[in-house]
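1st attempt posting a full record on here, be nice pls
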Amino acid sequence: MVVSGGPITQESALIVANHISWMDIVVIRSLFPARFIAKEEIALWPVVGTSARKAGTFFIARRRLSSFRMTLEQVQKTLDNNGSVAVFPEGTTTCGDRILPFRSGLFEAAIRTGRPVLPIAIRYESPDHRSLSSISYTGGESFAKSFWRTLGEPRIIVRVHLLRSLDPAGCSRRELSGKAWTHLSSVLFPSS
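the predicted structure (as tokens):
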């Protein structure tokens, strides 16, 4: 793993990252003691669901507003208690070739608590610096298939860029999510 940008801090923050693979969680957890948010279906996955529950993951039912409200309260409480929470505001994975628009709802927790938003850019590369789209976990494939395909890569270089923390003061959740999206885009796709 190659880490660049700002220092790794243990400061409480809402960590936001682009989302390519299930490996993103492993990468972020290796750097920060953060809790995660995942769709409720993951809780039922063999091995992964058990590990996610043990790690304190918050599970959200995407189609139920009451579930979102409960998750927002849990995130806010974690931030208030000096913990960090990591989210993937795209709401799904990509092949790493773009960043989807961010869902802004959970940025409200940073605004309510005054905790910073820490954007993290993640990229998977081969040794010759080509983007490894084979790492992506998209579509309807099984976790097992993605897992074995990823393990089949002879060498994976993970590039993590820690961006400057964003102060939520005076921002709406849409403004804050827009700033995070713009910052991540400028690092991941500088010529765009």
